């Protein structure tokens, strides 16, 4: 199956990150350059090899303070490279490496780097707490016009009704779901770059304050400062690369009603993207060794566990209960870097992709999953959803 | 509970009918003059038959809470918390789901399946925002 799939003509060749922390005293541009230089070196390439640049989101998407940072042309100017392909988008970023893979698979670039830079940690400190969605603008535009005026002032408020509906339909409890952040915290303790590493217990989780019911503090990812860059290279350049990783299959699907509050079945999310991805590979869920599933909130990891077929619909509560299956020694180690819940909100599966690449190379240090050959990476959920399998080269 | 602290909507050619009706306490969605399907939010195009001739349709009668959240976080200075946000659907009006606040009971009593009546209250920027009221038979 699928030797003509375009993603098979692309490799993820490098990942790199800046310092990551609740607050990092550096500019967005400096963080971006740090991450790009690290990623290009990680790929075994030099800056002059880079001929494609992409950032997410493109400039101007500033609904959340600290969410969007910089401008692609300023970065290109700083790097002193020439490009034959560029992309700065807001809508349609199903997976970080999707656009770059299209570019290198079609010959528009040989080595494309995409980055995501966040300064939401600093923005939160400045605001005296996690700031309101849309608070950078005087009025709520587009889809936000139906949310912000009624008091759905954060992505937390958008996603909380999904969690409420899911728990209602399937009888899943907070005691069960607690095992996702609790287990990921244990993973973060083995990641020197994670922002929260102290032990977390189910009791801590149940005792924490509710932000937007049923979601509590530990259901929400951690705003941070930091940048992640990913280099995607044309498959024929493999001999030039230090340690590339294959893209076995990927898909990005927007289905149903593309709106947070209008999504019809809030108990089931991500199924379209997962099905489209599985249709592009002969691998099956049981072949996956490590799962880096988007976790802006706990419930988003739940969506992906079920949509990807790692467990049945409504069964994630039982699947994660006790943390054994999703722990490092379990059948499906989940978010081995701590995820966004403990590793930091690097956003849009950039952190998840970096971790998947490190796991497949055997470069994940104390949190390495022995012999990892196949990694799942998913992004967001809700209406914009991306799913991929990466494999060892 | 005051709901005026917040961020007002940007009103567009498609949405001005909704916000004008809201000021009068009426919930108006789009109806298709070709096939009769109803939809919200207004897009100026029927999601069932793709017709372009959309007309305002008022929704009255009970709605049912599809899901909800109770927000405790003070996202903005002066924001009064906690408050319940409900996603409401209407029997006999497939295709219509409206998000709004909930009044008439303590926020902690919000529940999936609860019956509510259409209502509005003063929101940010002088706009009237959807604010559903627990129906007398609702709890």
Can you walk me through this structure?
The complex is a heterodimer of chains A (393) and B (139). Chain A is α/β, with parallel strands linked by helices and 393 residues long. Chain A has one domain (6-392): Peroxisomal Thiolase, Chain A, domain 1. In chain A, 29% of the residues lie in helices and 18% in strands. In chain A, the strands form 2 sheets. Chain A has a 9-stranded mixed sheet with strand order 3-2-4-7-1-8-11-10-9. A two-stranded antiparallel ribbon of chain A has the order 5-6. In chain A, a hairpin with a 2-residue loop joins strand 5 (210-212) and strand 6. The radius of gyration of chain A is 19 Å and the shape is globular. Chain B is mainly beta. Chain B has one domain (16-134): OB fold (Dihydrolipoamide Acetyltransferase, E2P) (Beta Barrel), CATH 2.40.50.840. Helices cover 6% and strands 36% of the residues of chain B. Chain B has one helix at residues 16-23, and strands spanning 27-32, 38-39, 54-59, 63-71, 83-89, 97-103, 115-117, 120-122, 128-134. Chain B has a 5-stranded mixed beta barrel. The radius of gyration of chain B is 15 Å and the shape is globular. The model of chain B has no long low-confidence stretch (mean pLDDT 95).
Q: What key attributes describe this structure?
A:
heterodimer; A: 393 residues; alpha/beta; Peroxisomal Thiolase, Chain A, domain 1; two-stranded antiparallel sheet; 13 helices; B: 139 residues; mainly beta; OB fold (Dihydrolipoamide Acetyltransferase, E2P); three-stranded antiparallel sheet; 6% helix; 36% strand; globular
């Amino acid at each position: 199956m699928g030797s003509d799939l375009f993603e098979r003509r692309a490799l993820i060749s490098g990942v790199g990150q800046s310092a990551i922390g609740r607050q990092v005293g550096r500019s967005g541009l400096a963080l971006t350059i740090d991450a790009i230089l690290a990623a290009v070196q990680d790929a075994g390439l030099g800056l002059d090899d880079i001929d494609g640049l992409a950032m997410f989101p493109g400039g101007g998407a500033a609904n959340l303070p600290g969410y969007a940072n910089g401008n692609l042309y300023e970065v290109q100017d700083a790097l002193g490279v020439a490009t034959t392909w560029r992309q700065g988008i807001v809508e349609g970023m199903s997976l970080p490496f999707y656009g770059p893979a299209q570019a290198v698979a079609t010959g528009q670039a040989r080595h494309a780097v995409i980055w995501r830079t966040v300064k939401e940690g600093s923005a939160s400190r400045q605001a005296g707490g996690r700031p309101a969605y849309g608070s950078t603008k005087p009025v709520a535009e587009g889809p936000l016009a139906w949310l912000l005026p009624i008091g759905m002032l954060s992505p937390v408020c958008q996603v909380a009704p999904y969690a409420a509906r899911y728990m209602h339909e399937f009888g899943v409890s907070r005691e069960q779901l607690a095992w996702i952040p609790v287990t990921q915290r244990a993973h973060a303790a083995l990641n020197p770059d994670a922002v929260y590493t102290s032990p977390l217990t189910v009791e801590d989780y149940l005792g924490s304050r509710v932000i937007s019911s049923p979601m509590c503090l530990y259901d929400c990812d951690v705003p941070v400062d930091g940048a992640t860059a990913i280099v995607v290279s044309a498959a024929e350049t493999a001999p030039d690369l230090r340690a590339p990783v294959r893209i076995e299959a990927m898909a990005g699907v927007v289905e149903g009603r593309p709106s947070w509050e209008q999504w019809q079945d809030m108990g089931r999310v991500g199924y379209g993207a997962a099905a489209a991805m599985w249709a592009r590979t002969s691998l099956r869920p049981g072949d996956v060794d490590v799962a880096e599933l988007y976790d802006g909130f706990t419930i988003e990891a739940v969506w992906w566990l079920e949509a990807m077929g790692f467990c049945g619909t409504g069964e994630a509560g039982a699947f994660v209960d006790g943390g054994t299956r999703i722990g490092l020694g379990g059948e499906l180690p989940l978010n081995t870097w701590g995820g966004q819940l403990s590793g930091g909100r690097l956003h849009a599966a950039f952190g998840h992709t970096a971790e998947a690449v490190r796991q497949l190379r055997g470069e994940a240090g104390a949190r390495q999953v022995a012999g990892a050959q196949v990694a799942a990476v998913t992004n967001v959920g809700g209406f914009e959803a991306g799913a991929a399998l990466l494999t060892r080269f | 509970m005051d709901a005026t602290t917040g961020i007002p909507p940007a009103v567009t050619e498609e949405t001005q009918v909704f916000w004008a009706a809201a000021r009068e306490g009426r919930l108006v969605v789009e109806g298709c003059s070709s096939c009769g399907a109803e939809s919200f939010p207004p897009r100026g195009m029927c999601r069932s038959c793709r017709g372009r001739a959309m007309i305002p349709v008022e929704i009255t009668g009970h709605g049912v809470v599809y899901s909800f959240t109770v927000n405790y976080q003070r996202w903005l200075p002066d924001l009064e918390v906690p408050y319940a946000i409900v996603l409401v659907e209407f029997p006999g009006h497939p295709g219509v789901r409206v998000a709004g606040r909930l009044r008439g009971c303590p926020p902690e009593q919000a529940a999936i399946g609860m019956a509510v009546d259409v209502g509005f209250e003063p929101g940010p920027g002088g706009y009237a925002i959807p604010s559903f009221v627990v129906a007398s038979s609702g709890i």
